[in-house]
């Protein structure tokens, strides 16, 4: 599917995933053309051996099969990783609208580099979110604490006006019943208690080794964008960010280098429908593009 809509400042195609390098893909887009970016870049942590856990042996707290495997795209020198980070963030800032937000996943392996690059580029960090995962991968060696969180940076393109969109009402009174740290009517905090479990339909057509659950992504999308907005994901993987965009009535653009994952993402998107109430928004936007 490849649509355009005239309520966007630049008349760009959307609702597609391109099998291409994200830096080159973003360079093909005009300035200030997307409303929200969710970036799940390589963490640069494929430095270890291969770990696997077969859940045919029952053990309390182990919710399923676990695996940590090395990937070529996730193994760079420190210098190369910094240059790569600086390059994709430069393009991301350029294409993000002043009213837009960018969310970036990371861990202690890479989040410091991303933080520094953001500051060098004038990308302002709105919040640092700690995503607490009760079912995180166990420390099998027994030589360190069990890593049980990831870091998410919520940022905007910078500047004194700080025009980024924030749905405060949703963040305060939305349905977050799956988060034990969030109470209805209370302000959302920067620690999110959400398991890393994916629903069966999220894995039905295949999976990516660093795939994020839809429930985390839809939260970000609803907090910082409106129905009909365009989401861009530079590292689309198996398409979870694009699926979450479609579910919530947003449009999407994705870039992914591995053809295998592009094909998984396309299958998932073919079988994804917007939430009740969001279908009208998408239909109205697409109808407007035909006029």
**Approximately how much beta-strand content do the residues carry?**
15-25%
DSSP helix fraction: 25-40%
**What is the typical, i.e. mean, pLDDT?**
85
User: Which regions contain 5 or more consecutive residues with pLDDT less than 50?
Assistant: 1-9, 47-70, 283-291
Order of helices and strands: EHEEEHEHEEHEHEHEHH
Terminal Cα span:
18 Å
* Class inferred from helices and paired strands: alpha/beta
Structure annotation, total helices: 8
CA gyration radius, whole angstroms: 19 Å
State the strand order across the main sheet. Answer: 1-10-9-2-5-7-6-8
Topology, number of strands: 10
The largest pleated sheet is described as: 8 strands, mixed
| Shape designation | globular
What does this protein look like?
The protein contains eight helices and ten strands. The protein is α/β, with parallel strands linked by helices and 291 residues long. An eight-stranded mixed beta sheet has the order 1-10-9-2-5-7-6-8. Strands 3-4 form a two-stranded antiparallel ribbon. Helix 6 links the parallel strand 9 and strand 10 (251-255). Helix 2 crosses helix 3 (111-121) and helix 5 (214-224) crosses helix 6 (240-247). The longest helix has 18 residues, at 78-95. Residues 1-9, 47-70 and 283-291 have low confidence and may be disordered.
């Amino acid at each position: 599917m490849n649509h355009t809509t005239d309520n966007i400042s630049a008349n760009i195609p959307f609702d597609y995933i391109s099998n291409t390098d994200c830096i080159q893909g973003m360079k093909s887009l005009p300035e200030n053309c997307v409303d929200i970016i969710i970036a799940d870049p390589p963490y640069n942590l494929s430095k270890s051996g291969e770990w696997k856990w077969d859940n045919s042996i029952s053990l309390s707290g182990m919710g399923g099969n676990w695996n940590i495997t090395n990937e070529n795209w996730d193994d760079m020198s420190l210098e190369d990783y910094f240059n790569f980070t600086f390059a994709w963030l430069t393009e991301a800032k350029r294409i993000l609208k002043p009213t837009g937000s960018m969310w970036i996943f990371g861990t202690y392996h890479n989040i410091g580099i991303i933080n520094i690059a953001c500051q060098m580029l004038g990308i302002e960090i709105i919040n640092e979110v700690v995503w607490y995962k009760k079912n995180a991968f166990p420390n099998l060696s027994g030589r360190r604490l069990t890593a049980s969180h990831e870091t998410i940076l919520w940022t905007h393109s910078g500047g004194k006006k700080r025009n980024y969109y924030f749905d405060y009402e949703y963040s305060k009174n939305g349905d977050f019943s799956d988060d034990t740290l969030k109470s209805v009517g209370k302000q959302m905090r920067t620690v999110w208690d959400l398991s890393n479990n994916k629903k069966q339909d999220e894995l039905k057509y295949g999976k990516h080794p660093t795939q994020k659950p839809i429930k985390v992504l839809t939260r970000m999308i609803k907090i910082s964008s409106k129905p009909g907005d365009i989401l861009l994901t530079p590292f689309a993987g198996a398409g979870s960010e694009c699926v979450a965009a479609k579910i919530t009535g947003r449009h999407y653009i994705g870039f992914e280098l591995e053809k295998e994952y592009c094909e998984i993402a396309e299958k998932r998107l073919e079988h994804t429908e917007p939430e009740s109430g969001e279908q009208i928004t998408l239909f109205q936007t697409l109808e407007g593009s035909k006029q």
